[in-house]
Every structure is written in structure tokens, then in C-alpha cells.
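sorry for the late reply, my laptop died twice this morning and i had to redo everyting from scratch. anyway the thing you sent over, i finally got around to it. pasting the sequence first so we're on the same page, its 247 residues, then the predicted structure underneath. double check i copied it right bc i was rushing
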Amino acid sequence: MNYLLELSYSGVKYSGFQIQKNAKTVAGELTRASTLLFGCPCKINGCSRTDAGVHANQFYAAVNLCGEGNNVPIERIPAAINCLLPYDIAVKSASAVPDGYNPRFEAVCKEYKYLIYNSPYKNPFFHKLKLPYGRPLDAEALDKEAKAFIGEHDFSAFMASGSDAVTTVRNVFDASVTRQGDDVIFTVSADGFLYNMVRIMTGTLLYIAEGKIRPGSIPEIIASKNRAKAGITVSADGLYLNKVILR
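ok and here's the structure:
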């Protein structure tokens, strides 16, 4: 039997989701906990490869048992595995899936949120959870700018170097900027994302707010396919994989 886990996690203490040598990762913790719970080696496949410091409000990971394991009732798996996981990773539900199931290839839509703490005052409780930004931001104006991301485009200008993407074309279903109190939130959903794409999109919006990039120029930046035309790559601190839709 193999299982699909729905979970959430804080990425503050982790070098991303994917297992890496000599680094603490979310998949590494899931592998350790699953092996203890099921009593056999386990392989973990995640729905996305979140980078170091990136958080997830919703994430899916498949646990493939590599041998005869303990017979744990599905309804008891979340509580049992949570006892074996650190406090910053939480499994919400579990379901049975076929052998070799990989949620990465089943994801048809992913939604990310980038949280900006827009206040001149420091808040230590948001450290590594939101991007602190002291200058005033006009969320309504940035929302109009963000709409230019919507559609199927070649997003080469919004991809960091080091990517192994086969194609740089992605279909952005929706993009918006909203304000909730001191939080300015950039939300974007698509059929997939390039390396650091959301962080560069956010950096571009901030450059527009600062006057470093001319308002209304996002379509030109997309058409240029030139990374140098876009804004900075903001930190991972405020980035959350917020929702994943599986087929």
C-alpha cells in the first residue's frame, strides 16, 4: 500500500523540500518519520520542489513503501506520523494511491502567495515568515500591474539561472495584489512555475512601486525574454505554496 499525504510546513529551518546531501529538508524528515511508522524503507515524492526557506500551506507528498510494512489504518496515519515529525511539519490527511504515484505529475494548478509586511515598524514575530518592507505600497495600483502576468507566455525574463526547465512557457490563470491590514499579498496561480518565478514577479512589482521600472511595462518585459529587464529576486521568506489542485 502507498499513501498520499496532505501537509503544511514552515520552511524556515529547511533547505527546501527535496532530499539533499548534508542538508535538512522536509522530504528528509518525512522519509525518517515514514520509515519509523511503517517499519520499512520509504520513498517520498512531492508535488513541488520548494526552495530553501519557502513555506507551504498546502502540499502533497506520496509515500511509497519499499517493502512489507506495518499495517497502519489510513485514518490513523496523520496523528501517528505527526508524533514522529518536528513541530514545523504537519500532516492533515492521508489516502491510498497506486504504486509509483507521483503528485508532481498530477498537479494541474498551483497557487502561490507572497506576503509583504508593509509597515515602518519591525515585528519580530514575522521574521522569516513575511518580507519586511517599510515604504508605502499602493496595493490597488500593483493589482492592475499584476494582471499583465495572466495568460500563456514565455516567462524567460522571470526565471533565475540554473533552471533545468524543458520549456519556459507557462499559463498563468490569475494574478492579484491585495491588502489585509499591514500585509500586502501577491497571489498567483498557474499550471506551473519556473525557478524563482514568483520571487522575480514580486521583485518586479516592487521595482514598479519604487519607480525603478516604468508602470505598464510588464508586457514588454515578458516579450523581451530578458531576465535583466525584470526586477530583483526577493527573499524566500514571504513565499508560500498556498494551494495545489491534483487531477
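The chain has a mean pLDDT of 96.
thats about all i looked at so far, will dig more tmrw
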